[in-house]
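Need tokens for this chain, all 369 residues.
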Amino acid sequence: MVKRRYVRTRSLKEGMAIDQAIVDRAGRILISRRTMLDSYHIMSLIKMGVPGVYIREGEDDEEPIEASSGQIFVAPAVQREIDKNTVQDRAKVRLSESVKARVAEGIQYLYNDTSSEGFASVTKNITDDLMKAISDNDAIAVDISTLKISDEYTFKHSVDVATMSMIVGKKHGLNNKEVYELGISGLLHDVGKSKIPNEILNKAAKLTDEEFAMMKQHTLFGYGILKDKKELSNSIKLGVLQHHEKMNGKGYPMGVGSDKINLFARIISVADIYDALVTERPYKKPFSPRDAVEMIMSMTEELDIHVMRSFLESVILYPVGTDVELSTGEKARVVENNLKYVLRPKVIGLKTGKTYDLADISNASIVIL
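Here are the structure tokens for all 369 residues:
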């Protein structure tokens, strides 16, 4: 028999099963009902200011129940199978709310006053925060859904790209100094857009040829802002200048080929494209993470294939615990990610309890929708 009781957040213990879903303001499920709480869940609830939650004790019927919201409540036997097979994700970057607030304020300062005497020091302070978040968590992966800094696209995008670039750079073998400088370059990669007229920058419709030609100048404007700042290395400046160059020589602003493109720019380019694809804008709907990754995987002539591999091994698209829908029509929960096949994790059907290793050839016809 199942009992349900209310427990104050600070009295929660690891191993307790939560009997309610925790959702954010956008309606996204942060902690699913019947999740076995760990120390990270409890700390997150405290930080979010949740005063208390309902927990469940005991066993109930074996059949799953479909809620009116569409969320499936998993039968105990299936939950035991999920728990037995769950392999936690690699350590991910986590930014505290205080860090997010400082970073958002710093980014706005940089983009609003590019000639400030404190420009370089503010940039380094922001990068210090990001570097510390990576070091504190010993992070080797990034969950794109957790990075959002603000609702303002330019600031969010800058921090997303910087953070992803740093993780990818770390995976790619860069040392700490290089990862740090790559973060600075990622933060500033679009700083030249501060010189683009707002009517072009914020236009909801497709840009005209003339407007797009102006928009493409942002890499040159960015380099112009940074070129005389002696505190910033040449690689930082080239990352900003070249992040829209392509390996086949068909990028901009100079149309140089692979042998002329700085490594920072190659890394930032992949992170920039991915984040732009998955982010909603007034003139386009967001691509799903799966579609965005597939698009990047198709760009072998334009992107550095080795950087692409490092990126694919760094980004977690379906965090363990995420509920997904399979092409078979079945709903399933992700229990383990596959480092080599980011699109094909191991999942367990929420009704059947059946395990699907999507990276196995026997499941090649099954995909996550």
